[in-house]
Design goal:
Blueprint: E1 3-5, E2 9-15, E3 18-26, H1 30-40, E4 47-54, E5 57-61, H2 71-80, E6 86-93, H3 100-118, E7 121-123, E8 127-134, H4 139-148, E9 152-159, E10 162-170, H5 174-184, E11 190-192
Antiparallel strand pairs: 1-7, 2-3, 3-6, 4-5, 4-6, 8-10, 8-11, 9-10
Helix pairs in contact: 2-3, 4-5
Amino acid sequence: MSETLAAPAVFTLEVKHSRFLARAAPVDAPATALAFLGAVADPAATHNCWAYRIGGEYRSSDDGEPVGTAGRPILAAIDGQGCDRVMVVVTRWYGGIKLGAGGLVRAYGGAAAECLRTATRVPIVAMREVTVRAGFEDLGTLHAALAAFGAEKLEERFDAEGLALRLSLPADRVEALRSHLRDATRDRATIRA
């Protein structure tokens, strides 16, 4: 099971007078990742290198460092730490001593990995949307079950037969909710995926 960050994280590293500031944050879309970059990138810094992974989607940037010495090591750190839905920006202020390609890879990858390693993480839970149909007589039972199964109401529609409720809940709880409602409503409430 992959994890994401519970909150943004920061880590600072100094290598031969160059300062590396790694900042990581949970993101749910590429636009969110790039917005985070815009918020934390320091225009006065020498480089603002970054990478993100959101499921199978990923991007990285060396921001002027030699090709493959910053963005890819940051992405490798994200993958190596088992993170998903994460953006990491590593800002470098040049200290006057060249680090060489190997030194850059170690510094950028190391700062990103340590930032992620020390961050508080949470598991990513696969969610599923379902529609529940219930008669008016079962509304109390249905609403009482929502919190117990970690379900969130997305849409609620009433008609002559009762209620159609669109829910989002952890995928591994759908069958348990189906079974509970079947028993609690004598099979009157139905769930469709």
